Amino acid sequence: MKLFSKKDPVQAELEKLEKQEEKFLAKNRERKDLPLNRFLQDKIPDKLQGTLEAAFAKAFSLIFEKGTGVIEKTYHKEELEKRSSIRQYAADVRGDRKSLKSFSRQAAGSGAGNTLASAAAGVGMGLLGIGIPDIPFLTGMMLRSIYETALHYGFSYDTEEEKRFILLLIQGAMTHGERLERVNEKLNFFMEHGCFSQEEGMDEMIRRTAGILSDELLYMKFLQGIPIAGVIGGAGDAVYMNRISEYARLKYHRRFCLKRQSGLKESAAKPRKAL
Questions:
Q1: Cβ neighbours for 5, distance < 8 A, ≥ 6 positions apart
Q2: Total of domains in the chain
Q3: Which of 10, 40, 41, 120 is deepest in the core (most CB within 10 A)?
Q4: What is the Cα–Cα distance from 229 to 231, expressed in whole angstroms?
Q5: Is residue 7 in a domain?
Q6: CA dihedral in degrees (59, 61, 64, 65; nearest 10)?
Q7: 255-268 confidence digits (pLDDT tens)
Q8: How far apart are CA 50 and CA 34, in angstroms?
Q9: How many whole angstroms separate alpha carbon 153 and alpha carbon 157?
Q10: Alpha-carbon torsion (257, 260, 264, 266), positive or negative
């Protein structure tokens, strides 16, 4: 009789991810009311948020339509796909948690690099007092970080469904409270069922994501438009990039484990051929 049964590595990893996800949700449940935001509240032009929202929406539309190829020139897509395939083969052979964790380590490295790049660019533009004009660059950095994360876990990012998934990732990373809970549930439903519970048009999803970003980044982008003082606002780019990267890694890792768990169950259910 076995006194101890070894827990399935994939299930153990999923349980760990669930705890990490709960921690992320708890940390971002309430929006922080920063003293700087209260100070700037009466100084922000009425039309600034609408201008920000339009800039983000235009950036997403342009990149999704014809800018993904430009982003792909900033990293080695084929090399990332090859490394992901090697890690998946190792996970198939070894079947332990160590091989599963190698995916998150690689994704974390890419995320850190993108955060540093956005911080350097944001601070530089803040010194010059450039705020809204950096929106296309910031949007491109967000998508590059998510694209690389997707590749590390063996997922694509160029289909309509994957673009919706990516937009929801950004929404979830940049929102709070009940809205964050709803977005998180939508993502989990897609990962478990392979489809969205409610289909939403791409244009509407882009507008919704742009609205969330403009609301969250309003104070930082206003401050970034002031020369010298804008360094503080520019540095905020790194904070938000880190949040997006962290949330993307959590969801893609969970999606990868769920897919792997499903594949293992299907394999076990298939009848074996007689020798």
A1: none
A2: 1
A3: 10
A4: 5
A5: no
A6: -120
A7: 999 998 887 554 44
A8: 22
A9: 11
A10: positive
